[in-house]
Each structure stands twice: as C-alpha cells, then as structure tokens.
Design brief:
3 domains; pyruvate-formate lyase- activating enzyme; binds iron/sulfur cluster; 14 helices; alpha/beta
C-alpha cells in the first residue's frame, strides 16, 4: 500500500528546495504527495528568520498536531528555537534540521516502526544538487549552490540552523541544471544564504552561471541574494555573466541599513558606499535592472538620523523591491542582548519607510508602461484566470487567460502599473 504525505513549507527558496528534496526522496521510496486531509504524514518545513514567522509556524504546528497524524518538523526552526517547539508541541513523530533532509526516508521508516519524538541533526549537509526532487512548480527549478554562511551578523539566527559555509561542487550544480531543463523547467533559481561567497575549489558564482548558460534551450536564470561584501570580489565576472540573455537582469542585494554606525553594529562588513558602487556599476550595463533589497528598521540604538540615511539612500537608488522588516530579537543572537527600541518607535519608522518604498516602486513601475516584449509565465496568479509572467528583468507582469499557460513564453504589452506588479495584455 502506498503511503501518503502532505508538506507545507515556510521561508526562503532554499527551504522550498529542501521541501522538494524531501518530497522527491519520499516519492522515490513509494510515498505519494497528497492533501492534508488524506495524508498519514504531515511534514512542516519551518522557518525562524523573524519572530512573526516563528509565531505563524508555531501556530500551524499546534493546529496540525491536534489532527492525530504523524507530524514531522523540519527546516530551520528546530535548530533556532527547539525549546519553543517542544513546549508547544510536546508530542511529534520526528524533528530534523536542514542538514538532514537526505535522511527523511529512514526517519519515516523509523516512525513506521513505532518510534516517536525522534530528533535528527547532522553536522554536514548532503550534496543537495544531486538528490532527487519533486518540483512544487514544474516551471521553476531551484538549485541550492551552498549551505550556510561565513558571516556573523549580530541579528541573524539563520546561521544556527544552516551552519557555516558548505559549497556544493560546481559540476553537480551544472548537472542538476541540465536535468531540470531536460525535465521542462524554464527558470532556474540559484539560491543559498549568500550566493556571492560561493567558492568550490576556486570556482565562483560566475563560473556556475557560465556553465548553466551554455545549456541549450530557452530558459532564464534568476540569481538570488548576495551579500554586497562578497559581490565586490566577483563584480567583473558577475557583470559578464549577466550580459548573457539567459540571466535575468535582477539583482538582490540586501542593504539592511544605510547608516554606517548601524551597519557596523549589525556586523555586516560593508559600508553603504559599497552597495551604492555595485548598484551603479550594474546600472551602467543594465539600465532596466530590477533591484531588490532588504532593510531592517528599528535595530537597537537606531535613531532618526540613521533612518534618514536609509531613506536618502533608497530615494537615491530607487530599489524596485524593498523587503522591509521590523527588527525583532532572535534567540541566541548578539543583538538580542542589546537594549531594544520601543515598539511604537519601530512601528512609526517602519510605516514611514513602507510608504516611501511603495512610492518608489510605483514610480519605477511607471517606466514600464507601454513596454512590449517576451515574458515567461512562471506562476499562477492570485485571482482565477490570472497568470504571472516575468520579462528579461524579472518584472512581474500579470496577464489574464482562461487557458493554462504556465511555462509558456508570451509576447505582452504592459498596460498598467501598480506598486508591486505590472498588468499586461498578450499581443
Ligand atoms: S534560511 Fe533563513 S529564511 Fe530560509 S528558512 Fe531558514 S531561517 Fe527561514
């Protein structure tokens, strides 16, 4: 008899890829992915990057633990806040960390044998690009090029879960890209906690991109987040890689703050000028670049002048996407020991910045009005009969169609701009 499992994943693309690995391995072992109602095993692939995410994960876990199903808790939270999970969900089938995803089939077998409350943590990750995957979106192939990080940012708890850097062999990464494109993927996501630091026996991110660009076929590559500090060292090669039409003109550089003092307290390792220089260099080659950044508001000791620095910075460089988070102390981090700012102050500053972000991204999107060209439909839209396409700059363009057009390349014209997306019509 085939056994069924349901999987729910929180967090970033690396975590989503881990969910796909676990689903792939379980699939190969004869288990099938199904709905929550029908599932015997419920896998919750957690994230603990921020307090609100952790709260949502805990509430989901509490709800699911009452269903009388076999609950498996994976992802980052077990390593970040084990105590809180156990306090809220004292009885579970198994818990594992991101470095143990390859052990999922063994874990499920042990549960079948009657074991309970199993905890499996590993020191070294498996070579994730070589593991089977069940793609949650058949158009998008996510490749993890590394696990962990070299930095010690004072606010970050992800490194407790993902550990120090472990880069996967470049040839395994390119091989995985080959396999994904053969399977029909039209978009390859390059992901890790910091793509800029990738180094496998001297091979860097541009070498991986060069290898993937050489693969025949019509597809795009989306390069995920890179710490600006590490982009500096590969800037020339990276720009050369981006010149290939297969690479989306999309840059995700987390700024976090434009105050020199706050960046030092965060221990980010770069001044705001480094970020500015990289952006200008990219814009010189790619004027239609989509720029995405992350900002933390209300870091301990931040004052109005620090915020002003950040506001001036974003008004100058005008990012298309700003992921703004209110600072929240994470367990075990250095910043959790700093004196915290009052919530009212953090809320006020966050509101101000969100408003500016909305205005800036709307202004940027207006530049696309009347643009026409090719885009790849890579996602279903939120509303029925709508689809999300991406053009060469990874701009989201919503188009209407009653047919299933997922994975198709369409020619569209942008007819309306919103602050977070564009509306297009097929031409
Ligand atoms: S790596 Fe960070 S964002 Fe991704 S799942 Fe883990 S805690 Fe969440």
């Amino acid at each position: 008899m085939r056994k069924n499992f349901f999987i729910k994943s929180f967090g970033c693309s690396a975590n989503k890829s881990d969910a796909e690995v676990m689903a792939g391995l379980l699939g190969e072992a004869g288990y099938s992915l199904t709905s929550l109602e029908e599932a015997e095993y419920v896998l919750v692939n957690t994230c603990g990057v921020k307090q609100p995410t952790e709260d949502r994960v805990i509430s989901t876990l509490k709800q699911l633990s009452s269903l009388n199903k076999k609950l498996i808790i994976s992802g980052c939270l077990p390593r970040i806040n084990f105590e809180r999970i156990v306090k809220n969900v004292p009885s579970f089938s198994a818990m594992l960390d991101p470095r143990s995803v390859h052990l999922i089939v063994d874990i499920v077998r042990k549960i079948d044998e009657g074991q309970n409350n199993l905890v499996v943590f590993s020191d070294e990750p498996p070579i994730k690009p070589s593991l089977p995957k069940h793609l949650l979106n058949p158009v998008i192939g996510i490749i993890q090029i590394a696990e962990g990080c070299t930095m010690a940012c004072t606010y970050c708890c992800t490194r407790f879960a993902r550990g120090s850097i472990y880069c996967y062999p470049n040839y395994e990464i390119v091989k995985e890209a080959h396999g994904l494109i053969e399977k029909g993927c039209k978009e390859i996501w390059i992901t890790s906690q910091d793509n800029g630091i990738y180094d496998f026996e001297g091979m860097k991110l541009p070498d991986i991109l060069e290898g993937i660009c050489k693969i025949e076929g019509e597809f795009f590559i989306r390069v995920g987040m890179m710490n600006p500090l590490h982009v500096k060292g590969i800037l020339k090669g990276l720009i050369e890689s981006f010149l290939d039409e297969k690479v989306y003109k999309f840059l995700h550089l987390p700024l976090q703050s434009a105050s020199v003092r706050i960046l030092e307290l965060m221990r980010r390792g770069y001044p705001p000028k480094t970020v500015m220089d990289i952006i200008y260099e990219f814009l010189e080659y790619f004027p239609s670049l989509t720029l995405s950044t992350d900002i933390i508001v209300g870091f301990p000791t931040e004052d109005d002048t620090d915020l002003e620095d950040t506001i001036k910075f974003v008004q100058k460089i005008k990012p298309d996407i700003m992921n703004i988070s209110k600072f929240g102390a994470r367990p075990g981090t250095e910043a959790s020991k700093f004196e915290q700012l009052p919530h009212s102050v953090v809320n006020r500053r966050c509101k101000e910045l969100v408003q500016i972000a909305r205005e800036v991204s709307y202004e940027k999107n207006l530049n696309w009005l009347g643009w026409s060209g090719r885009c790849l439909i890579d996602e279903k839209g939120k509303k029925d009969g709508t689809w999300i396409g991406r053009n060469f700059a990874y701009k989201p363009i919503v188009v209407k169609s009653e047919q299933n057009i997922l994975g198709r390349f369409l020619n569209v014209e942008v007819v309306e701009a919103k602050s977070t997306y564009l509306l297009g019509k097929p031409i």
